[in-house]
Amino acid sequence: LLRLVDALTDEHIRPDTTTFNAASSCCEKGSQWEMSLSLLEETKTRTLQPTVISYSAAMTACGKVGRWRELMGLMAGMLKDGIEP
């Protein structure tokens, strides 16, 4: 998925938060928690503002596979970023 996002950039299409949220939602549905976390971090790296949807997709992906520590870390990060659940 990150290659797809990079391909968009190569075509002079700037991925936005919605792009990353859609990709993360795909990861959530496929229980790809690590990729979902990577996409959330990539959102921040590109100086985009994650939303409650960004965090929710990553938290759900982590929850589906029992990654509770990561889920709680995401909850703390979301609150630190000033995003209300």
What characteristic shape results from the CA principal axes? globular
Give me the count of strands: 0
Radius of gyration, taken over Cα atoms and rounded to an integer in Å: 12 Å
Query: With helices defined by DSSP (H or I, 4 residues minimum), what is the helix count?
Result: 5
Low-confidence stretches: none
Structural class: mainly alpha
User: Which sequence of SSEs, written as H and E, runs from N to C?
Assistant: HHHHH
Relative helix content: over 70%
Mean pLDDT, all residues = 89
Strand fraction: under 5%
**Terminus-to-terminus distance:** 26 Å
Main sheet properties: none
Description:
With 85 residues, the protein is an all-alpha fold. Helix content is 72%, strand content 0%. It is globular and about 35 Å long. The model has no long low-confidence stretch (mean pLDDT 89). α2 runs parallel beside α4 and α3 runs antiparallel to α4.
Brief digest:
This protein is mainly alpha-helical and 85 residues long.
What's the arrangement of secondary structure elements?
Blueprint: H1 2-10, H2 17-29, H3 33-45, H4 52-64, H5 68-80
Could you name the key traits of this structure?
single chain, 85 residues, mainly alpha, 5 helices, 0% strand
